[in-house]
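Lab notebook, bench 4. Still working through the backlog of constructs that have no structural model yet. Next entry is a single chain of 455 residues. Request: give me the structure tokens for it.
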Amino acid sequence: MKVGIIGGGISGVSLALKLGILKEQGKDIDITLLESENRLGGTIDSVHKDGYVIESGTNGFLDSKPFTLEVFEEAGLKDKLVKSNDKARIRYIQRYGELQRLPEGAGAFLKSKLLTFGGKMRIAKEYFVPQKKDDSDETLASFAERRLGREALDFLIGPMVSGVFAGDPEKMSLQSCFPVIHDLEKTYGGLIKGMIKKPKKKSGPAGPGGVLTSYEGGMGQSVKDLAQVAESKGVKILLSSPVEKVIKTGNKYIVNSGNEEFEFDIVAVCAPAYASGKFLQELDGELSQTLSTIPYAPMFVAGLGFNDEDIIDDLNGFGYLIPKKEGMRILGALFTSSMFPVQAPQGKKFLRIMAGGDTNHALMEKDTDELLKICIEDVKNVLGVKKEPYMVQTFKVMKAIPQYHTGHREKVAKIEEITSKLGNIYIGGNVLYGIGLNDCTKTSKLIAEKIAEKL
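Model written out:
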């Protein structure tokens, strides 16, 4: 059986590895991965510069879910995983031009300056807010304001989701982006009721549960190493091989890439929605159109290296996010030298600043030099930056993160219906079921299991 994987990000590579293990076990399977770029990783890349490891995209994954850990275990690479410093549990949100620590308990919440007394009382009243009666899709903003109040939306929920999705809460689908939160109200009648009644609570007010985990040399290196292991198990990986067209003839899929034509029994698409929407046009117009309607948020990332004395703030923690009402232009900054000390030279301070997102497409029209200047200006007073950074590395991606707007679950249902009728074609990656690394590797695991059943 011939399997074609389109897309060499973490999703495609982890799927290739799992299928490679089946091949190594003696299963009759031939695996080819096609990647359009001359490198693997997609939006994941790690640049090594002046002793720093600068990530273009995600800085790791949470070990509270098994999916990504399992991939590294299967590859024999678990010993190369790097746990974040305990300081990474300390998170901040900017308010009144200062960093306010996210409270981790009821006492800290009451003392916190993050919300006014009225805002805190409004959250406490959430217990008595009636349950939503229908199952219609709701924006995150509508849900947060209805259950927690406007202040909580502006200064808690809004900035926190911008840090995960770079998204706009006024557009984001609660059910698609935060199904666990949606289910708390649906199952228990509310958030506070759910937190009281639901067993095995692993997350808290200050953020998700689990330890943030990276990899020696960065997440970009992790994808390269996983691919190398997959190749050792018989997987063929072809770089600089953009797919132009996929059609179906009988029970076979014909994939055109440049001057080459491949014939596969099964195809797993792990490419971005905007790319797959183009090359699947001739296969199925409705599938192509539905994928093409999934929007993407742009991102600008600036990695900045400073001498220790050049920043007054000790950068003790994970980083901070910025509510729109604070009037800044960036989304926030990560304190990488605090989270992962091995990713910065000893005695240096390392910031990774994010800008853009779904709420600020216009900002991304500026050139790199201007965006860099904005990033430095917006952290200057908050962190006490006294000098310009001596190390700078920037990344600008105009289509970085898929956005699950309201109506996303209907798109997912339509895509599942079409691919089921076509047979032996799967949509993976971060397009449908979640954007985090654990979401991607979970989807790849499920696809691998479906393929294994066919063997």
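Notes after review: The radius of gyration is 22 Å. Residues 140 and 174 are 5 Å apart (CA to CA). Flag for follow-up if needed.
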